[in-house]
Amino acid sequence: MVQAVRRFPNPRLTGLGGGLFCAAAMLALGALDALLFGSSLTAYGVLFLPVCVLTAVWVRRGDLATAPVVVPIAFAAGLLPVADGEGTGGRLMGLVTALATQAGWLYGGTLIAGVIVIVRKVRLAARRRAAAAAQRR
Hints:
Blueprint: H1 2-6, H2 15-36, H3 41-58, H4 67-78, H5 87-101, H6 103-136
């Protein structure tokens, strides 16, 4: 299992790169959801969770705080192809309705990204403390 995980790519994205990755992935998944599942909001929400995990894991150490900020923005951006409605006003109403009814997925994905970021920050601080203690010896 560990060897399989190590074969995955391990990019380090800047804050902007993490935001662009997340938004592009959610736009692509939203369009795919609209094509394959007929704009299923549940399928969209399920697809949102792994993108949150990847964004929080792949962002650089210095830009960790951006991950929980960009995932809700990407959720909203990806809803554009999924939201129901005719015309600009109808599409906007569909977007607002989808954001209101799918808030659980939005909060869950943001929570997942936030927890991953907090764990990474705690591990980073512990490594720094251990390195400082080893240097004092």
